[in-house]
Amino acid sequence: AAKKDGRNRARTFTRSMLIVLEQREMLRRSLRTALQEGEFFVEYQPLVSPAFEVLGFEALLRWRHPLIGNIPPSVFIPMAEKDGLMSEIGKWLLEQACRAAMSWPSHFTVAVNLSPAEFLHEGLTDRVAQTLDLVGLRPDRLELEITESVLLERTINNLDTLNTLNVLGVQISLDDFGTFYSSLSYLKNFPFDTIKIDQYFIKDLEHDEKGQTIVRSIIALAHGLGMHVTAEGVETEGQAIWLEKEGCDRLQGYFLGFPIPAEAIGEFLRKSPTALIGEFSGRRSWR
Ligand code: C2E
Ligand code: MG
Ligand code: MG
Ligand code: MG
């Protein structure tokens, strides 16, 4: 009986694996045409000062599959990377995001994520320069977010790329800081404007003294190196207050605002009483 069970289990397992594989194959096939079919859209999540002034938005890619519905970026972006589609999709997103930013108050920034394939793409710096030119967006209003995984390979060219972007005048953020290798040599060698502390460290902040020590240290480290700090994944008022007190420059997370479509930004700003303070006071610094 045990033998029979084992065989059955093996067969069941194989079949469900097959279904998963078939679904993945189906998704990959749809992904190839998703851009032409207009299935991608962009949501924007606010980046906010500790005084709750909106400072800008991060563009987040969304894919609405015609049959399945919304597929999370954590699922389709790695697929698109593997199939060599991400560079083309990223090009589309960059232009969308820059165009959207043109309709916002002129001190707002727009942050765009770059996956490894996009960052390593030879034409990246030209693409960024051309898009800014085409759309007419001031370079310092564009922020490019990369993760440390991007920097693992091709170190010398990476530095060239970052330096060229720096010369163009765009801002560069190190995303998801603390989750990957977090090699301090990256901070020493690469010209980042901002470190984004990963939401992993923010989640338990109020009850976790070790977590507090780590976040406090990252803030001090960044400021010591002349960089700004953004906290990701701020979900509670308590976290926001703690981060304000510790001198964090920018907050992002569901407590400050969910990702929303471009069309909803106007209303979001109207409902957010401090959203336009920076514009009226002409103040551009974050603190
Ligand atoms: P990320 O760049 O670190 O973006 C932050 C993610 O955290 C987003 O997930 C956002 O919706 C989510 N988030 C924001 N606030 C909170 C919060 O308070 N609590 C929690 N639990 N989550 C929060 P999303 O949109 O699913 O994106 C996941 C990742 O996919 C992004 O992480 C980024 O690495 C990648 N991604 C998204 N859009 C793009 C894109 O246009 N291009 C590239 N290359 N990657 C993208
Ligand atoms: Mg990001
Ligand atoms: Mg992040
Ligand atoms: Mg993250």
From TrEMBL:
Record protein name field: Diguanylate cyclase (GGDEF)-like protein
EAL domain residues: 24-273
